[in-house]
Amino acid sequence: MLEIERKYLLKSMDWLSEDVKSTHEIQQAYLFQGEEKSLRIRLKDTRAYLTIKMGKGISRHEFEFEIPQTDAIEMIQVAELKSLRKTRYEIQFYDHIWEIDVFKGKHDGLILAEIELTSENERFAIPHWLGEEVTHDPNYLNVNLFKTL
Hints:
There is one protein chain. With 149 residues, the protein is mainly beta. The protein has one domain: Hypothetical Protein Pfu-838710-001 (Beta Barrel), CATH 2.40.320.10. It is 11% helix and 52% strand. A hairpin with a 2-residue loop joins strand 6 (84-93) and strand 7 (96-103). The longest helix has 10 residues, at 69-78. The radius of gyration is 15 Å and the shape is globular.
């Protein structure tokens, strides 16, 4: 599957007044991270996933598989991995769902907004609370945030 995603910093907290559709607690760790590919373990509320990502930029291949939560926890423990933690808010803004990630721990204070698109050229309404686009800045990739834990 091809994931087409753009990522932004926020210039205000006004997104809190938007229509929050759902909130999720996320813990994720990486078993492998290369220059253009990674293997991630993610715990999202009571579910768990293994995700393979390949490529870079706005469009990347993503393959996600649900696994038992106990397996995910055991893999993180056996591999002695640190975990990136965040709360994700899903917000409806016009025709799209924005995912707002509020990071915890070492990255406390970092808040990123992401939008998934159907094509790289898809038009979308830009919320007034969005700041600088960081889609092409590798410092804001979750895998690179994980490396700094």
